[in-house]
Specification:
- The chain is α/β, with parallel strands linked by helices.
- The protein folds into three domains: 67 residues, Elongation Factor Tu (Ef-tu), domain 3 (Beta Barrel), CATH 2.40.30; 238 residues, Rossmann fold; 85 residues, no CATH class.
- The protein contains eleven helices and 21 strands.
- The strands form four sheets. Strands 9, 13, 14, 15, 16, 17, 18, 19, 20 and 21 form a ten-stranded mixed β-sheet that branches. A seven-stranded antiparallel β-sheet has the order 1-7-4-5-6-3-2, with no helix packed on it.
- β2 and β3 form a beta hairpin.
Length: 438
């Protein structure tokens, strides 16, 4: 639409740090506009009062600013030309390449009707044993990493992107440092995997409110490849705490009453709108979502992880194991609620029993460590569990271990035989006879 046929408003009635309000009619919710040349989006309509969220901030915007409504919500041109590219929060290229051509689709649409979903049943292998062995992922699942800010969660996400056995990987980066952005770009390029990876990135140098568009951009691209192309798509979102902080910025500057931890009262529905895009489709395509939620001081009760836990199907905890000096996927606090759909069905028959036995022995080692720290004498069994736990953490749970699931199972059987007698691992006799490493 040319400017000559657009409605132009020049009377701003209210300006906050992130929004402005004008009187206007025939405006749609989430419609885009420009305010003195700055891109903005409608976030609230009350009769003829329209509140616009200004992505670049309201600094320098006068009360007679020129407001032009664009007649459409944020959109993305989808197509095969997205593959291997890096885009900003508006879907504009930031890698120096040309603007891709394709069908323009509005972002942020509704999630898939549950009647059109199929029960997840396909394995998503990552090569990380702490995930594949103990917390196996299933296509169509939604699951977060809970991690402290100083843990290498972006390195884990990059590793998952390179190892995951899927057709497309879509990265949504929110509040990334320039170093993180360049790290992802370098790792993907050096691995020769760019042809199946699409990235939407908001850095710390960009206005925080822009990161609110990133998940919807990533998921719109994911829906194209999963629904139109029947491909298995893995969406990686980092960091959802940065996303929630941006929600809080907008909410607070609109003078909305905050809820727990200064978060908006709509936090649950805002997060669910994103996570519920995960689905297994009857025709074979799927969208699986792995997100990072950083914790403040390890506080799992904060509003962001607390709400996330109600929406998602489990969680993956990262922690540093001091006994081996490596970051591991914590077997005690991690959980995949859908793992039983593929363990022993799409993986080897002994998978569930090996997983259970290993975690039980690792738990016995934790109890033995407590006894040691409190000055109690250790039994021979206690010492063996401690030795087992070190090998298990270093060679299985550590995030830098790269094995396929059969190799993980075989190696764990080897650890059982190294430290225990068959009757001590509590695995069915027929399994022991078939897989025990003599």
């Amino acid at each position: 639409m040319t400017k000559a046929f657009q409605k132009i408003y020049t009377q701003v009635t209210q300006i906050t740090k992130a929004t402005c309000t004008i009187k206007a009619t025939d405006v749609g919710n989430e419609e885009l506009a420009t305010v003195n040349g700055k891109l903005a989006q409608v976030v609230k309509i009350a009769k003829d009062e329209v509140t616009l969220q200004i992505f670049g901030g309201t600094e320098g915007i006068p009360t007679n600013a020129e407001v032009i409504f664009l007649g459409k919500a944020p959109s993305l041109k989808v197509g095969d030309q997205l593959s291997g590219r890096f885009f900003n929060a508006f879907g504009e290229p930031i890698d120096g390449g040309s603007v891709p051509e394709g069908e323009e689709r509005q972002i942020g649409g509704p999630s898939v009707n549950p009647m059109r979903r199929k029960q997840p049943s396909e394995l998503i292998a990552t090569g990380i044993a702490g995930i594949d062995l103990n917390n196996t992922l299933v296509s169509g699942q939604k699951i977060p990493f809970f991690a402290d800010p100083d843990q290498p969660f972006n390195a884990v996400m990059a590793t998952v992107a390179l190892r995951a056995e899927t057709d497309k990987i879509i990265l949504g980066g929110m509040g990334l440092t320039n170093d993180d952005y360049l790290y992802f770009k370098k790792v993907f390029s050096n691995a020769g995997a760019l042809d199946r990876i699409i990235s939407f990135v908001n850095t710390t140098e960009d206005p925080p409110v822009e990161r609110l568009l990133v998940p919807d951009m990533a998921l719109t691209a994911a829906e194209y490849f999963a629904v139109d192309k029947n491909e298995k798509v893995l969406v990686l979102l980092t960091d959802m705490t940065s996303y929630a902080d941006a929600l809080a910025i907008v909410s607070n500057r609109m003078d909305q009453i905050p809820s727990k931890d200064s978060m908006p009262g709509s936090l649950y529905s805002d997060l669910a709108k994103i996570y519920e895009k995960a689905a297994q489709f009857p025709d074979g395509g799927s969208i699986t979502i792995i997100a990072v939620t950083t914790l403040s001081g390890g506080d799992i009760t904060h509003a962001v992880p607390d709400n996330t836990g109600y929406i998602t199907e489990g969680q993956l905890f990262l922690r540093r194991d001091s006994s081996v000096g490596k970051v591991i996927v914590d077997p005690f606090r991690s959980l995949s609620r859908l793992k039983q759909l593929v363990q022993g069905k799409k993986t080897r028959e002994d998978h569930p029993q090996v997983m259970n036995a290993a975690v039980r022995l690792y738990s016995d080692a934790s109890n033995a460590q407590t006894k040691l720290e409190n000055g109690f004498d250790l039994t021979d069994y206690d010492r063996r569990t401690l030795d087992f736990a070190k090998d298990y953490a270093r060679d299985i749970l550590a995030i830098d271990v790269n094995l396929n699931i059969t190799e993980m199972l075989d190696y764990t059987w080897g650890l059982f035989a190294k430290y225990f007698k068959p009757e001590e691992v509590s695995i069915k006799k027929e399994m022991v006879e078939k897989y025990w490493k003599n």
